Amino acid sequence: MKKHIYVYPFLNFSKLSRLMKFFVISFLLLVSVRCNDTPNPVKKELNEIAKEIMTNAKYCAFITIDSLGVANARAMDPFLPDENFTVWMATKPSSLKVKQLQGNNNVTLYYFDEQSVSYVTLQGIASIINSRNEKEIFWKKEWKNFYKNRTSDYTLIKFIPKTGSVISEKYKILGDSITWKTPTINF
User: What's the pTM?
Assistant: First the structure.
């Protein structure tokens, strides 16, 4: 005797049940195709991404260590990094930064770009430069109210990085999922 397919309970579907299963399966297929179809972010070198973040952040935190070993952070208006990631900034010769750099010239720069949820941290050496030539090159007209006398009230900080780290949601550059260790750049 021939059995009808509806005798098997797992094949016995009502019209409504079949219609719902069709929609659920169609939805799952559509979602999986859309997820796999998402374009990958633009491929860029880590250095290029770091410069983009630094440019978009505009300001950075300049972090020094004082004689007691305490970190001191302050906002700075730096020039954009050059091809070697050297960063120039200005300060007053009488500032606490200058005193701290004379005692310990190891510095960290931290840039955060809110729009792309990305940051760059650079560790390196900073030095005070008081050359007239460099002071002419590295001057921003927006600083005129801060430095009344460009000869005596204004000095430069030259930062040369040794290492850096980058996190970028935009470019899917994230830290290790367990240790959170960030991708690094060695200069």
Answer: 0.76
